[in-house]
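Tutorial, part two.
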Amino acid sequence: MTILSETAAPSEPKPAPLSAGRALNFVVLLGVVSLFADLTYEGARGLNGPYLSFLGASATAVGLAAGAGELGLTNVGTLCGDCTQPNLLPEDTFDRAWLVAVLGEIPDQAAALRQIHRALRPGGTLAVAEVFGIDPHYQSPQTVRRLGLTAGFEPGERLGPWWFFTQQLVKPLKIVERHQDA
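Running the prediction step on this input gives:
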């Protein structure tokens, strides 16, 4: 006589929690996909693509901003101006800034990073993304890190390999000294 017993099926492994780095890579990937869609539509058929190009906005920046809008994010936008000019941006205002394949196009990179540093709130992050091969003015991870340190940023996490990376640069928190009366 054979006795058959049912055994419990092996449990499925639980997926690992999504890390901040993986989430940021996903957001950047969405922006890249949106960029190519916007390049096709806006550049060929719409009015915004040629107009923004005339103003000097890169297709990458337009694609990321449009992608954020498509995701329903209302607190994301683009600013057009000379970021090397003192006091163009209000001090301690922004939580995050992105430079996507644009740092190499800025003639005075040190001045631009100083002004962005000034405009970020303490603890705010500047994300510098560069892509080798697509951008003729590509900046290496070492160059981005060195420029960030010179402007007063602390290096944060770097995502991606040297040829397609995002370097996070963090504005340090202000330290408030407390004096005790004797």
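The domain at 81-174 is CATH 3.40.50.150 (Rossmann fold). In part three we will examine how such features are distributed along the chain.
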